[in-house]
Design brief:
This protein is 35% helix and 19% strand. It contains 10 helices and 13 strands. Helix 5 links the parallel strand 6 and strand 7. The termini are far apart.
């Protein structure tokens, strides 16, 4: 009897500790959310995580991405400042939780749409996969598309387009043809160098999520197809509003960097030499990064073996 009570007590302590750990991990306070008008009825919403677009129509609202789970209330409050119309659709650029972390809550009030590979990635998550708030419920989109999907609402149209892999296997370009605006998700980033930063060789601080089907080799081809669209303004996955020439330069710098790294790999450079170049010349972080578990700020380094293997092969890895 005493042994049973001791085991029961230990089990209770374990449950309480696990609950406390979960709550402590998910209790990060949400940062303030703000919006700015960038076109007729189209607003850029920023705060933390990835950029969000909010599109107001006479029949309801279309949202592109939704930051982290903890930002749900802030985004909804910002929406209510702009319109009394209900939220109808949420379009995901991809599945990472700084962009789609609020999907579980959004699914209760709207339809969430994403590329079919987003649903596949979330249904069977491959490691390493970093979550900013482990334990937060993952929302899996109910509606998916393969190449293209259009949402028509209130006399306006938004298109979700898939041009290939890059950051992940499910990156969508969200296109607003009337406004000549695109949201690229993390296929394009508009990070600005800090004042006083020494000049670096042409390159981009991208993260190829190989575990989630991303491809360094296909990335530029995907941007080439994106640049065939008729647009002026660009909402990047992170960073301030940009223009078409910014995407063109980003793509050119990506190709330059990739060609240099591929030359090093095929020329026999060691992993340590390549990692040093990535850190010193392109701003990728490796110093202080563990090999595992998945760690914020270290994911580029933690998947560098897959990146090197792709560069060595010279072709994209097969889509799993």
């Amino acid at each position: 009897m005493k042994r049973f009570l001791v085991l029961a007590l230990l089990a209770g302590i374990f449950v309480l500790h696990s609950t406390w750990t979960l709550l402590s991990q998910t209790a990060k306070p949400a940062r303030p959310v703000n919006s700015q008008k960038i076109a007729d009825n189209l607003y850029l919403v920023t705060g933390e995580g990835g950029n969000v677009l909010l599109y107001v129509t006479d029949e309801g609202v279309i949202l592109v991405d939704n930051m982290f789970d903890r930002n749900h209330d802030g985004i909804m409050a910002e929406m209510r400042k702009l319109t009394d119309k209900p939220l109808r659709y949420v379009l995901n650029t991809h599945q990472h939780d700084d962009h789609a972390g609020g999907d579980a809550k959004m699914l209760k009030i709207a339809e969430v749409i994403a590329h079919k590979n987003v649903r596949a990635n979330l249904s069977n998550i491959k490691q390493p996969y970093y979550e900013d708030t482990p334990g937060t419920p993952i929302g899996i989109p109910r509606v998916t598309f393969t190449d293209e999907m259009a949402v028509a609402l209130g006399g306006r149209e938004v298109r979700a387009l898939y041009f290939g892999r890059g950051h992940t296997s499910g990156d969508a370009i969200i296109y607003f043809p009337r406004e000549r605006v695109i949201h690229t998700g993390d296929l394009f980033l508009n990070f600005q160098p800090k004042p006083g930063t020494p000049p670096r060789p042409p390159g981009v601080p991208i993260y190829v999520d190989s575990a989630q089907g991303g491809s360094f080799m296909e990335w530029s081809q995907t941007l080439d197809r994106t640049l065939k669209l008729d647009f002026d303004q660009v909402v990047p996955g992170h960073g301030p509003l940009a223009k078409r020439p910014d995407v063109q330069k980003f793509n050119a710098d990506l190709v330059t960097m990739r060609n240099r790294l591929q030359g090093m790999v095929k020329g026999g450079s060691t992993k340590a030499q390549i990692v040093k170049i990535l850190e010193d010349d392109y701003g990728w972080r490796s110093t202080g990064c563990p090999q595992s578990p998945p760690t914020g700020g270290c994911l580029q380094y933690q998947q560098v073996d897959a990146l090197i293997a792709e560069l060595r092969a010279g072709v994209p890895p097969p889509l799993r």
